[in-house]
Amino acid sequence: MPRKPLEYSIEDWMPYRLWRLSRTVGDTLEAYYREAFGLDGSDWRTLAVLANYAPISAKALAETLDIHQVQMTRALTKLHDLGLLSRRTDKHDKRKVVLQLNLKGKAIYEEIVPRAQALEDKNFSNFSAAERKQFLALLGKLERQVFK
Fold first, then answer.
1. Number of domains in the chain
2. CATH code where residue 73 lies
3. What are 22-54's pLDDT values in tens digits?
C-alpha cells in the first residue's frame, strides 16, 4: 500500500526491522531445537551462555542474559529437570551456586551450534566477505552506542 508523504512507517524503524529479523531467524532455529530437544529460545540462549561462560552463578547468568531472577530460576529448573546442567556450591562462597553444562547439555549445545552457524551463513550468503565484516562491525558499533 502506498504511503502518504511524511507518514510514519514502522517498517522503516530500525528497532522494528531488527526485531523482525531476530524473530524470523530465531524461529527457524527454534523449530529445530524445540522438536529435537524440547527447548525454547530462552533455553537455547541459556545453554549458549553456559557453554561460553561456565562456571557461572545464576545471578551473573541472569545479568548476561538480561532477564529477571524469577525467569532465570524457571529456566534453570527446566534445564536441570531435562538433565542438561549441574549445580554446585561455590568453594569460596557457600551461599553462591555455580552452574555449568553437564555432558548431555554440552552434547546438545554442540549439536545445535552447527545449525545456528549454517543458518547465519545462509542469511549472509548474498554478502561479500567484506560486506559481512562491515555489517558486523556496524552492528557492534550500534550495540556499543545502545548499551553504553
1. 1
2. 1.10.10.10
3. 999 999 999 999 999 999 999 999 999 999 999
Q: Within a domain: residue 36?
A: yes
Q: Which domain holds residue 27?
A: 10-120
- How far CA 27 is from CA of 8, 56, 77, 102, 135, in Å, comes to 28, 27, 23, 26, 22
- Look at residue 31 and tell me if it is in a domain: yes
Q: Is the pLDDT of residue 79 over 70?
A: yes
Query: How far, in Å, CA of 35 to CA of 33, rounded?
Result: 5
Q: Is 85 helix (H, G, I), strand (E, B) or coil?
A: strand
pTM for the whole structure: 0.86
Task: Give the largest Cα separation in the chain, rounded.
Answer: 65
In a domain, 76, yes or no: yes
Q: Residue 36 is placed in which grid cell?
A: 529435537
